[in-house]
Each structure stands twice: as C-alpha cells, then as structure tokens.
Amino acid sequence: MSAHRHRLVGAVGAVGAFLMVGAPAPAAQADWDDLFQPLVDAISWVDPGVAADTDPGSALASLDTLFNGWYQDLVYTPLHGIAPWLFGPDVPGSAVAYNPDSTNLPDSFTVPMHVNLNTQPVINVSVGGGAQTEVLVDTGAAGLVMPIWNINPFGITGLPTGFNIGQFGGALNYFYMELPTTVTFTGANGDTLTADTTVDAVLFAFPANFSPFGPWSIESYLAGSSVGILGIGPNALGPTPDHIPTADLPGTLGHGVLIDQPGGKLIFGDNPLEGGTVIPGAPWADLKVSIDGAAPTAVRGVIDSGGVYGTMPSSVLGNVTPNANGTLPDGTTIAVYAKDGTTLLYSYTVGSQSGEVRSPIVVGPSSGMNTGNWLFGQEPVYINYGVPNGQTIIGGTLIQA
Fold first, then answer.
1. Which of 47, 64, 138, 200 is labelled catalytic?
2. Are 223 and 308 contained in the same domain?
3. 249 and 140 both lie in a single domain
4. Which Pfam families does the UniProt entry name for this protein (predicted)?
5. Which of 400, 395, 376, 397 is nearest to 277 (CA)?
6. What CA–CA distance (Å, rounded) separates 208 from 197?
7. Does residue 138 carry a catalytic annotation?
8. What is the structure's pLDDT at 79?
C-alpha cells in the first residue's frame, strides 16, 4: 500500500485489482513542531525567550515538552485512571502474554489466518488493547491502516506523530493521523504477542473520484472482507514504511513473517523453511514474465498478497489481445520467473479450475506487474526484514531440528 494503491473495487460486491504506480507517498512529517510553529510566534509576547532563542529546535522542544505535559496531566492520566472503573480491571488468564519486556520470548509465534472472498488473507488484531478486528494481510503495503473507532483510546501511548492523506488504488482517499500504540496478535492457543508501534488511524475516507457510489470506508473498499489493512512489505511505497507492526515485534520475532496461506497461518520470527527461492525486495522486485510460452520479458513487479487477481502490463502480452473489459482471454498461460528468467516462481492458466483462476487486469505498457494473491495460495512466502528493502523467499521445506 502507498498513497497510490494497487487494489480497486470493481463491480458491485466484488474486489478487483489494478496497479497504480506513482510517486512514493510523502512521509507523514506534520509533527507537533510544524503544527505549533505559528503558536510559538503568537505567544512570543508571553515568553520572549521562545521567539528570541537562537536555536529554534530548542524552543520548539520546550513547547513540545509543555504540550506533552498538558496531554499527560489533562488527558492521558485521567483517562487511564478511570479506565478500570469503566471497563473493569484486567483479569489474568492462563495464556501467556508476550510483550517487549518479556524475558521468555519464544523463537516463533503462530497466528491463525483465513481467506475471505477467495483472495484476501485475513487475521485478527487488537490495537491498544481494544476489541479484535479483522485486517487484510498485505505484502504490498507498509503499516497498519484502520478506522480510528477500532482503536482503544486508552491504549494510545502518546501524542500523534503525524497527519497525512493516503489513497487506495485511485478508488478511496483517506485522511489519517499516525498514533503511537500497541498491536496485539493472538495465537491459536490464546497466547498473545504485542508490538509497540504506530497505527494509521483513519479519521474519514471518501471516494477518490467523488462518486456517491464509490467506497466510503476501508471495509466497503474491501467489499466487506475486513475493516483494516496490515501492510507488512518493507519496501512498499507506504503509507508508513518506518513502522510495520510485524517488524516492530520484540526479539527475533520481528525478523520476518511467513505467510502460509495454504496452511492457514502466519508465523513470526526467523524463516522456519529452507531451500526456498530468494528474491531481493519485498514487495517490489525485478521479475520476468512469459505469456503463452513467449520469451520472458523483464518487469518491475509487486509480490502482493493483497493484490486480488493482479495486473499485467500490456507491453508483455505479445500477440495476445485482451478482452474489452481489460482481462486476458481464458486459456492464456502466465508464467512468472525470477530476474534470471529461468527460475520459475509460479504459473497458471486463466479460466482453469472451473473459473477459479481469474485474469489479472491489463494496465499500461510502462506500469508494473502485480502478482495478485495466486502465488500465496499455492505455497508459503517468507518476508525477511533483515536486509535493506527486504527479501521475498518463496517456498522451501521445513527445517528439521
């Protein structure tokens, strides 16, 4: 995900996909220093030292300290003080709760996952200690985006760190603020794992083309599949690649995540598989694609678990003529290779398996390719955070102890 997304709501009640390749999303830099600079100028008559300070950073830092003090004294502390009275105290359970302060962190942690609408892998998360919320597991994005009302206000750990506007695939615009908080994952046996991170809290959303019939929320944009998007791709365009909850997990659990869609689970930690195909970059990578057995053509691709049925640039089609609706004809064979053009990553035939394999959407000749979810439905894929821009490791066998 970025400010320019690659997933689009297509026909009513269905989710399609096409790639919107644009400039990277601007970083959310509207911090409190920027927001309150006019106030610094305005109150200089109260505290001449603020305006006269030869180091503006020091002046703004003192103002930040002032506002943080107000926030702690007037908002944070009172709210947290009445939280047990309103909601009742936490009741200890038998399951283990792992957090950044735990001294007994496991080497790996498994979270159940299921697939909605055939192509959307979904898990449950709790933000700020709030209710469980379904989110899409999306390698094509970076950062957790969800409506602000799905975030427990008593679990916000500080002031917002930025404000920004994002966009999903030319279909949905959203205004959000980046909030420091916690994201908690629940394992199959009830154990919990918590990351100190930030979440992009959506204040409001509206259709990008101002159509009254367009999506007005993340949930409607995803055709009711989930209410938020958990972006886990380290070199995705946005919205906040500096804070990916799965990479912010404590200890070795933040080293990477295995998406085992056929097995119905996510596994946090070092890769439990060996012998897979290593692709530099996650999700953006250099790939090659062949249509109907033609010589492979180089493409810049997004290996995207949330990409639905994917996209295909018209420059690689050769003699294949797309349908009027921008899809490829049934019977078209697609083969995707690593950058070397010989290591096959996956292949499929459009319209095979009783219509279960649908076509990618044909996009402009200079656009990138999006794998869609097909690859993830066939074999496990590991996202490695341990190298710059990440790695995508496809397949492999279980490491024997």
1. 138
2. no
3. yes
4. PE-PGRS_C
5. 395
6. 28
7. yes
8. 53
Residues paired with residue 291 on neighbouring β-strands, in sequence order: 334
Tell me the CA distances in angstroms from 254 to 144, 249, 251, 268, one per residue in order.
15, 4, 6, 7
Decide if 270 is inside a domain: no
Q: Which among 310, 385, 319 is positioned nearest to 346, based on CA atoms?
A: 310
Going by pLDDT thresholds of 50, 70 and 90, the confidence category of residue 72 is low
Residues of the domain holding 394: 277-398
Evaluate whether residue 255 is within a structural domain: yes
Mean pLDDT of the chain: 81
Residue 251: exposure state from Cβ atoms within 10 A (0-12, 13-18, ≥19): middle
Domain containing residue 252: CATH number? 2.40.70.10
Residues 13 and 47 grouped into a single domain? no
User: Per residue in 3-51, pLDDT tens?
Assistant: 334 333 332 222 332 233 333 333 333 343 444 444 434 333 333 322 2
- Rounded to whole angstroms, the Cα distance separating 301 from 282 reads 10
Of 227, 259, 291, which residue sits at a domain end?
A: 259
Same domain, residue pair 13 and 152? yes
SS3 category, 127: strand
Residues paired with residue 159 on neighbouring β-strands, in sequence order: none
Q: What confidence tier does 200 reach under pLDDT thresholds 50, 70, 90?
A: very high
pTM for the whole thing? 0.78
Domain identity same for 107 and 197: yes
